[in-house]
Design a protein that fits this description.
By secondary structure, the chain is of the alpha+beta class. 47% of the residues lie in helices and 14% in strands. The chain contains 12 helices and 6 strands. A hairpin with a 2-residue loop joins strand 1 and strand 2. The radius of gyration is 29 Å and the shape is globular. The structure holds inosine-5'-diphosphate and magnesium ion (MG). The site of inosine-5'-diphosphate has 9 residues, from loops.
Length: 231
């Protein structure tokens, strides 16, 4: 049996698909009652159809898993990206090349780099979690002073966030193991030459803060089979 909706209802459905709520408000109460009834019956029929043809639980269990979330820091636990910055003291002391070398030699991939004197706003946002600490103002001044730029970078690879922190060493250089960057090159916590993201969440925040999407490059190692392959 075919049911043809009254003319006003056919006109209504066209209006609802493209027009503003103002058109809807112009409807009389009797037209609205007809529409509500239509929507209810239609909804019930659609629900019944879904029950009939919808996938069983067994099929649902086999449904493909959603892809892991990808952020500016890559895929957590997969190929990650971390924000590394040579601070102005590291730049002044000519340590940029050695720091880059350590990440390169390890097998990580440089996907973004720039020299930048950050604004106070950028430095404050970057170190937002430390804003109640007594050294906060000095820290922001040190980063934004402009006597040398910060060399901001994004490095990519397996476990790079955690491994980056290991290459850098403890926050207090006197506690940093020899062989780490801070362990080898500095003494003072206030002049510890380098920053590295401390978690996937921090890396996501920091990469987005310091770099636009178009400044971070996807590229492949020509020697990937010798660095990133497994047996
Ligand atoms: P991190 O750089 O190893 O992640 P955080 O605790 O996040 O260490 O501190 C951020 C930065 O703040 C440090 O790298 C250092 O430059 C500075 N900082 C931390 N603690 C002190 C302090 O006690 N005095 C002066 N500066 C500090
Ligand atoms: Mg930190």
């Amino acid at each position: 049996m075919f049911f043809r909706a009254p003319a006003f209802a056919r006109q209504f459905s066209r209006q609802l698909s493209t027009r503003s709520a103002a058109v809807f408000q112009a409807a009389s109460p009797s037209k609205l009652r007809w529409l509500a009834a239509t929507v209810c019956v239609g909804g019930a029929l659609a629900g019944a159809a879904a029950l009939q043809v919808g996938p069983s639980n067994a099929i649902m269990a086999d449904a493909p898993k959603a892809a892991p979330t990808k952020t500016a820091a890559g895929v957590k636990g997969g190929i990650e990206r971390t924000f590394i910055a040579v601070k102005p003291d590291g730049t002044q002391r000519g340590l940029v090349g050695d720091i880059i070398s350590r990440f390169e030699r390890k097998g990580y991939k440089l996907v973004a780099i720039k020299a930048i004197v950050p604004s106070a706003k950028l430095a404050e946002e970057h170190y937002e979690d430390l804003k109640s600490r007594p050294f906060f103002k000095g820290l922001v001044d040190y980063m934004t002073g402009g006597k040398a730029p910060v060399i901001a970078m994004v490095w990519e690879g397996k476990d790079v966030i955690r491994q980056g922190r290991r290459l850098i060493g403890a926050t207090n250089p006197l506690e940093a193991a020899p062989g780490t960057i801070r362990g080898d090159y500095c003494i003072m916590v206030g002049r510890n030459i380098i920053h590295g993201s401390d978690s996937f969440e921090s890396a996501t925040k920091e990469i987005s803060l310091w770099f636009g999407k178009s400044e971070v490059y996807d590229w492949e190692f020509a020697n990937a089979e010798w660095v990133t392959a497994d047996n």
